[in-house]
Amino acid sequence: MSTSNKTAAKKGGVISGLLHNQICIPLAALLALVIFNLVMDPSFFEIKMGYSSAGDPVLSGYLITILDNASELVILAIGMTLVTAASGGQDISVGATIAIAGSVVLRVLCGTESRPDELQAPIFVAFLICCLVAMLFGAFNGVLVSYFNIQPMVATLILFTAGRSIAAWINNNELPIIDDAVFGYFGNFIPGIPIPTPIFIAVACMILIALTLKFTTLGLYSQAVGINPHSSRLNGIDPAKVKLITYIILGLCVAVAGFIKVSRFSTINYSVVAKDIEMDAILAVALGGNALSGGKFNMGASILGAYVIQFLTTTLYKFNVVSSALPAYKAVVVIILVVLSAPVVRQKLNEIFKKFNERKTAEKPTDGPNKGAKEAA
Amino acid sequence: MARKMNEKMNGNKKRGFISGMSDTNLLLLITVVVFVVMYASAVIFLGSGFLKPQAFFNILNDNASLIILACGMSLVMITGGIDISVGTLTALVCMSCAVHLDFNGGSVLTAVLLALGIGLAFGAVQGFLVAYLEIQPFIVTLAGMFFAKGMTTIVNATQFNVAHEGFQALKATRLYVPGMGSVNKLGNYVPAYVEIGVVVAIVTVILLFMLLRWTKLGRNFYAVGGNAQSANMLGINVKNTKFMAHLLCGLLAGIGGFVYFMHVGSGSPSHAAGAEMNAIAASIIGGTMLTGGVGNIMGTFFGVLSLSTIKNIVSSLGLDEAWWTNITVAAMICLFLVIQSLVLRRKGKSK
């Protein structure tokens, strides 16, 4: 894929090569946002070195905020891309499962008390149990999708409805608060390191998924299953198993994201934690130019898409948009993007582009036919 | 296709009552049976509260707008799409009508027109994007949902009750059902009543039932949802059909929004939160499949009733904590999904 794109770029010029690459959609959106911010207020890009209340050095600035706050979204986008590719549908229960994962962490760390003086279990154990539970819920979705052949969006509607209630039930509807400095490191700053920890976690996840895609058949198999489950079955791949695995991986991503979310606040509010994050995660996948009906995917584009969404959110906040009015602006941007990337519109644009080129070639007959052929290629 | 039809026709005679039924009818039957069993057991085990006809009419009163929304959802789902904007669209309609009546001096008639206009506008834009630009319905209506959500706050950020006199009169109008009343503790006869919204909802259900069963457009919905490619080869205008489904869904969301407005009589950004998921759930329980081509408006009607009956049962069991309702509703969706999946598998085997 990438090689063919490169050759296309060489043949038809850099711009048209980029236009055919998937990553151009989030990149263009990012560029537009960057230019908009540069024009409106260049101080947006300032990064200052400050000191936290404990006297440790911390970086601050809008860019750092974006990178920091996008971490959960990026991690979710990774899992969501795989699920989308393999099952041709999206998991809308990730927000609710984050609530579950977060309350499991609190339950393990706090035991039965709501404000423990010391942690009841090591943080590592809590993280492992949280991963296990989230993967179990992922597997529940996965079994419904792969073995019962239920549409992903509908299958995950079950946990979407029940998830936050289950989360409240795990902690007996209490809101435990953890008073432990080390636990807060994962969502904020480690003393001495000026960069927020979630950024490191997100980068670690990216490296992990890059290695997995490079050295295992996960990427290939999930694309094969997404493109045609029947023929991949004939080729010896079990589509149900591949789908199930992608859902379990998404469960793991949810666990990590939930852990960061809890660590940020040292507590959890079941009804609002990670609200609407499933929509943002799906948007990230769509912004990355991935077909939501499954098949081929581009992980890098999805991750970039997640950052673009956070960039947009932060930009809107900066211009004092009320948080509840935010969705309207987001919707306009999304509509513009999906309309521009729709196959029908792209075809039309390509035709216009071609006509434009033909007119050019008519003016310059010497290298005309050659160039036309290249454009067609 | 023709062979399959033939098989089905022969199967009607050869196989038994259940196995000879079409998917749509079988799923409808299951839904109706579940509803009747649920309501009957509620009457038997929970007693008098459910025995009064008014208890049943209250379910209708509370859910009239949900019935209309779910009907629109079913139409879109039958064509193989989905519309998740209906819930926030309801909130937008409520807020716009409330502002129109109280601050801009509008009349009830213009408020109704406004509601219909908003619904039609959303339906037309979403339908155009889905049908003619071939963008995924989920993404388009997700954007619609976000847009409606944000616009509601932009129109007016806080909740307020509408004081408009004409509207208050309309809201308070009750239609008494003869012979269904009951005698209260003081010995007075309390007649049973329904709100205007219920009448609107029932008329909608009947009209849509006829539309799906007896009109060309209705049959096209099923054809497009079943297999868009074959439908295209049969000469059906697939794009136009999908557009019409979304347009109707938007219109119904406008009507449903106004009915909701009549029920609550206020505008608030948090109105009808999660209504789209309830509408989807009701459609699924009613036997509409998200894969398209299968579904029934009567099923959706009973789906809404089942959904709200189980909510009432849970709250009257004393499990007041909010989480129990959600967990039972989720369990119910799960149950029906597994049933649907098994039905599909049975069909696959019998071929």
Fold and architecture overview:
The complex is a heterodimer of chains A (377) and B (351). Chain A has a single domain (54-332), classed as Orthogonal Bundle (ABC transporter involved in vitamin B12 uptake, BtuC), CATH 1.10.3470. Chain A starts with a helix and ends with a helix. In chain A, helix 3 crosses helix 13 (299-318). By secondary structure, chain A is mainly alpha-helical. Residues 1-12 and 367-377 of chain A have low confidence and may be disordered. Chain A is built from 16 helices and two strands. Chain A has a two-stranded antiparallel ribbon with strand order 1-2. Chain B is globular. Chain B has a domain at 61-272 and 289-295. In chain B, a hairpin with a 5-residue loop joins strand 2 (174-183) and strand 3. In chain B, 74% of the residues lie in helices and 6% in strands. Chain B has helices at 2-14, 23-46, 48-51, 53-78, 86-102, 108-132, 137-155, 165-172, 196-214, 216-226, 228-233, 238-264, 275-285, 297-316, 322-350, and strands at residues 160-161, 174-183, 189-195, 266-267. Chain B is mainly α. The chains are: A mainly alpha (377), B mainly alpha (351). The interface between A and B is large, with 45 and 47 residues.
Characteristics:
heterodimer, A: mainly alpha, ABC transporter involved in vitamin B12 uptake, BtuC, two-stranded antiparallel sheet, 16 helices, 2 strands, globular, B: 351 residues, mainly alpha, two-stranded antiparallel ribbon, 74% helix
The residue ranges of chain B in which pLDDT falls below 50 over 5 or more consecutive positions are 1-15
Number of helices of chain B: 15
* Fraction of residues in H or I helices of chain B: over 70%
Biggest interface found: A-B, 45 and 47 residues
Strand content of chain B: 5-15%
Largest sheet of chain A: 2 strands, antiparallel
**Derived structural class of chain B:** mainly alpha
Q: Main sheet of chain A: which strands, in order across?
A: 1-2
CATH architecture of chain A: Orthogonal Bundle
Low-confidence stretches of chain A: 1-12, 367-377
Shape of chain A: globular
> What would CATH call the class of chain A?
Mainly Alpha
Which strand order spans the largest sheet of chain B, edge to edge or round the barrel?
A: 1-4
